[in-house]
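Internal QA ticket QA-208
Title: Verify multi-chain structure generation after dependency bump
Assignee: T.L.

Test input:
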Amino acid sequence: MSAFSAAMLRELKAGAPRKGVFFYLASDPPVRVWLGIGDIRPGVNVIDEFEETYTGLGELTDMPALQALSDGSSEQVEFTMSGIPPTVFRELGPHMREQNAAIVGQLIAVGWSVFDDRWQLLDSVWWEWFGFGDFLRLNHAVPEGARAADTWDLQLVAGSWNTGRARAGMLLWTHPHQARRALDLDPLAPTDLFCEQTVNMTDTEKPWPDF
Amino acid sequence: MYWHFPRSFAGRSVAEGWPRLVGTVKQPGRTASGLVPTTTLSGGGLWAVNFAGIFLRTRDDLNLWESLTAYLAEGARPIIVPFCVRKLAPVPIEDGVPVYARPGVPHSDGTFFSDRSGYVTPAIIAAATADAALRATTIRLTMTTGGPPAGLFSIHHDIGPRPYRILEALAVDGVPGDYDVRIEPPLREDVTAGSPAEFDWPACVMQLAGGEAMTAPADMLRFARGSASFIESFLPEPA
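Actual output:
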């Protein structure tokens, strides 16, 4: 993937007031959705060899906070789709096991791109986070009050390549922790210095850009 | 086959009824200087419209309202909702008089349909001059009748009619009646040259905004004031 274009840099410097967030799941057929409304064809990129259509129905409600760290472990994240009518769940329920089989271990990618002030994409999708599907979960929330509407949503739980049930999540961002995590991953390189300076950053105010 | 939300109901909405384009904005927080940076993630926005105070007086009105309520199924079925924005429409002015509607045209033998209506021509005839791609925000329109494009118009896509709001219309040099029109939201589907643009009665495929979005509290169990709020829908067309 090439570097950012001048137009894209200009938008990014301005705080990128118009952004598109894209989601890809390599099931068969692949799931392509984005956070916006209506269809979009973002063009050829690392994942899409040909021009593909991403549907946006406002279906994907929000993106989870994604955490990735070099040599570290990552959390599980949940992608939530809501706005699915209960009738769909009735159809979906019996097939959850099959659906699960179809997504386990499949590639999931989250990317973004920037629009110009006429809502034209300045570049194709920049895929930022890659993970693998783990399991599907139905979530039915009944709020307090008889007249409040139930909410149904479907959650897809995913992890990145270094998420594992046996591996502890990021609890403390300290050097000893990071060194141990690095050792787990690669016994030959036990000294990952990523968090070495953490101790200098606690309880002090760091005016930026003067450190 | 889509049902249509009756224009008579939409036009009778006394309190509201103006369409809005709703976006999703994320605010990361306020800076020390008070500037609040924002990021729009909706990619152009979603149409929404509320109707309130639709007076339902006759038995037919009330029955129609009931059947619509049942049909809409609390948002599970889409319907075509008219946008009553005739006030904005660039109606043609003929002999100094704005023409909002033309009289119905009879059959060749001079007779009308059994309900005494004729064939209807829209007051404003417009069409796309050139192809436009999915998510384009500029489209070239030819106005056969009517003034420079203004207000709202809708295009009938494969996914049903979708309205577009005009930011500006620039006349094309040397081609009278042609305009380069900037629109929002971005086109919901590809448009081929010659697709008509509906200025008279823009419409949108919509669904109820929620479970309690369509109500008609009755006075003395005889009259009712209906209200309904709709949002743009991407549900498949009902069979």
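Spot checks passed. Helices of chain A lie at 6-13, 86-92, 96-103, 175-185.
Status: verified.
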